[in-house]
Write a structure and sequence with these properties.
Layout: H1 8-56, E1 58-61, E2 64-67, H2 71-78, E3 85-91, E4 96-99, E5 117-123, E6 126-137, E7 144-153, H3 155-202, H4 222-269, H5 273-302, E8 314-317, H6 318-336, E9 339-343, E10 349-352, H7 354-371, E11 377-384, E12 390-395, H8 427-437, E13 441-446, E14 453-459
Parallel strand pairs: 9-11
Antiparallel strand pairs: 1-2, 3-4, 3-7, 5-6, 6-7, 8-10, 11-12, 12-14, 13-14
The structure holds adenosine-5'-triphosphate and magnesium ion (MG).
Length: 466
Amino acid sequence: MHPVEPSLRHKLLAWLLGPLLILLVLDTAFTYWTSVSFSNLAHDRSLHEIAREVALHVKPNGSGPRLDLSPAAEKILLVDQDDRVFYKVTTAGGAVIGGDPQVPAPLKLRPDSDKPAFYGGTLHGEPVRVVAARMPFGEGAASGTVIVQVAETLNKRNRLARDILASVVVPQLILIVMATLAVYMGVSRGLGPLARLERAVSHRSHLDLSPIDVRDVPGEVRPLVDEVNELMLRLGKTLDFQNRFIADAAHQLKTPVAGLKTQIELALREPEPERARHSLAQLYVSADRLSRLVRQLLTLARNEPGAMDALQLKALDLNAFALEISMEWAPQAIKHGVDLGFEGGGAVIISAEPDRLRELINNLIDNAVRYSRQGGRVTVAVAQAADGQGQLSISDDGPSIPPEERTRIFERFHRLLGGHTEGSGLGLAIVSEIASLHGARITLEEDLDGVGNTFSVIFPPRAAEG
Ligand SMILES: Nc1ncnc2c1ncn2[C@@H]1O[C@H](COP(=O)(O)OP(=O)(O)OP(=O)(O)O)[C@@H](O)[C@H]1O
Ligand SMILES: [Mg+2]
């Protein structure tokens, strides 16, 4: 079983929506991340500001620094609507001179740098964000540095992050849903003509071989539909051909079969053995004629235009082949009082299927011999043209075929009026079909000697064969 190819709609949706959704998710993450880090930066700055304010209250005191921060000032400095703020002041030597000793110490703070360090930690069981900075105090000989740390709980930051999340993600989500809808609708609309095409084809009767309307068909599928229409046209022709053939065959067989039946009835009723024998001999002739007709019909069916695929061409010497067949015809020619001659030269190699080519030559010689007048000449000639084309000509001394009939005699069952010769009008139709299977061309001209006709079959040069 062939793996089922996913539908075009699914492929389009996957290719459009997949990357679009990934882009939107990345965009959301990036926007969220940058907004949160900017707001953290602002909060970190104000934390650093508080640390600087605290440092302003460190005063030199004899041997070391002292924190001079009144409870009132401390309250003003540390009070915050949402968060609890803690601080800790440590001397360079590590002694805590003020604030909450439990504020987590920085991992490392470079002794020569006054750049603040920001870090996270836990204080009294709550996560906090801490700033630690080295701050100068005093002047002249009494000056020095202390380490000031300020810690703040995360309520404000967390709320802001949530707010940002809501304001960024919700619109992005709405955007995602709308983009999905737009893509889905776009794809559906875009594929609409294909769906209509499918309906138009699936609702068709199997007898309707009219071309599919291409007006509404998108450019991409147009070549495909054109090909299908082309195929239907060919199919229609083949069906027509076969229907016509069946009708013709039935019509042509009906009369001789009915005749045969009547003749048998008459023969059965005949009491006299001698006359019954005579009837039987007539019956034999009729049956022979019927069998020839059936054979011709089968030959026609075998050589219909669709038989091209079954054709097995091989290189063949037309000169030798035509000579051999002409010789087989000699007794028949003598019987008709016709002088059958052959004109040929060297080998003329063509591509052909021997059985079909024999059928073609037989039919042409048969006509020439049958329609030539008593004592007439029939000449079979083979020649090679300069461009490699092989040519077979058969000239006879029969009645000239009028120009207006020269195309029609190749039609099935078409015979010239006024003839007395037996025939069903299929010979030249068979010749024409076999010639076209071989890519050969037939011409019919008045014979060069002014009496009779010359039928020529011109085979394509061998190199032109596929
Ligand atoms: N060489 C010829 N000279 C004169 N008339 C010809 C010649 N060949 C064909 N015709 C005419 O063309 C008609 C069609 O020929 P075609 O071979 O198709 O059928 P047919 O000979 O009548 O019957 P059959 O099916 O037995 O061949 C003939 O009936 C005849 O009138
Ligand atoms: Mg014939």
